[in-house]
Amino acid sequence: xxxxxxxxxxxxxxxxxxxxxxxxxxxxxxxxxxxxxxxxxxxxxxxxxxxxxxxxxxxxxxxxxxxxxxxxxxxxxxxxxxxxxxxxxxxxxxxxxxxxxxxxxxxxxxxxxxxxxxxxxxxxxxxxxxxxxxxxxxxxxxxxxxxxxxxxxxxxxxxxxxxxxxxxxxxxxxxxxxxxxxxxxxxxxxxxxxxxxxxxxxxxxxxxxxxxxxxxxxxxxxxxxxxxxxxxxxxxxxxxxxxxxxxxxxxxxxxxxxxxxxxxxxxxxxxxxxxxxxxxxxxxxxxxxxxxxxxxxxxxxxxxxxxxxxxxxxxxxxxxxxxxxxxxxxxxxxxxxxxxxxxx
Length: 344
Prior knowledge:
Elements: E1 7-9, H1 11-22, H2 27-30, H3 38-42, E2 47-49, H4 50-64, H5 70-75, H6 85-91, H7 96-105, E3 115-121, E4 124-130, H8 136-157, E5 164-168, H9 177-184, E6 195-200, H10 201-204, H11 213-231, H12 235-245, H13 254-260, H14 265-274, H15 279-297, H16 302-308, H17 314-325, H18 329-339
Antiparallel strand pairs: 1-2, 3-4, 4-6, 5-6
């Protein structure tokens, strides 16, 4: 989903501004071009777009990029309490695995720009960090920020943290590599094929001290409702989305929708751009929402779900779903059925 469409609490911007102030960068310079006013910053209930936060991060990198490990320093300011209901749901989770599942399912309620994923192999749970969609000028800063925030999350879910067996990063060893070692408790590898950290799978299913299944379920439901509210479309984008919902198995192209609305394709694209979205983004929204519903409530095979959503091959649907949710469709179904007690 384009950064212009992703909404988040202003709290993350507040934390970045504190980082800027600690390094002598005035708020006016840090906020230049971000379109975040003093009224929004004064109210933690206010929301901004990920694009606005990205501009703020870019200003920090431009002015303070010479500070070693600036992103790591930023990420350690993010505690679970800063994430609102998303953080509460994680903190109430009975195990680290369930917390990780919730974190991935509702990742758009966090402040992460990195797309996290999980991979289990040989008794280890690998936490994958994909930064390829982040603009190059802020990529390292935001990777380091989101990585350090993840380490904070692990520490707060279980006092003393979970033993991290190892980590690797796909960039050259930085001059401040010892800060990575201090965070992890082990020396990471650099110049690797991917960004990832791995834990002993035996620990991820152990009970967490603050775990509470009832409270975790309540937190998940609130996360679901909040995410749904943020995805609601009104105005012209809402009209286009409603049209796409009419027959998702035979999704019309932009030319067909424009013709139905008696306008040129260029005009349709311009109208959507004015509402900070795009035709491709709306198609993705519709397919993702329907995919989640079909996987949870309909007893369909994967091939049937893919066909119902207009995918010619199940593999294309699986790839798209992993991009949306960070996990496979079948893993998502298993998790949701587990939460619902198998009722589907």
